[in-house]
Specification:
Layout lengths: L2 E9 L2 H17 L3 E2 L17 E7 L2 H9 L4 H10 E9 L2
Antiparallel strand pairs: 1-3, 1-4, 2-3
Helix pairs in contact: 1-3
Length: 95
């Protein structure tokens, strides 16, 4: 069953975040992940949520998501992301 990663990123350093993305996207794709949304395309309909950047990525299953997140080449990129943004990250299993 598919699994969905939802990330909210409040970017504080665009240059570092761009370097993070350039290195991260190929790892996500190798683990079967595909982007379902475009950055900056969100619109809050109700409530006080004010996200800077929201992304949804579909993985074939939760195990594929975990392979990406635990990948040795991704580990140093976590620190880069954390230097460049404040994040909320969720994993949801599909039906």
């Amino acid at each position: 069953m598919p699994a969905y990663y939802i990330g909210e990123h409040a970017i504080t350093d665009s240059a570092k975040f761009d370097r993070y993305l350039q290195a991260t996207i190929p790892i996500i794709e190798r683990c079967g992940g595909k982007y379902l949304t475009r950055a900056g395309s969100h619109q809050v309909i109700e409530g006080n949520w004010k996200p800077n950047r929201v992304v949804i990525i579909e993985f074939p299953d939760a195990a594929a998501f975990r392979r990406w997140y635990a990948a040795p080449e991704y580990q140093p990129l976590i620190a880069l992301r954390q230097q460049a943004a404040t994040d909320v990250m969720l994993l949801l299993e599909g039906i």
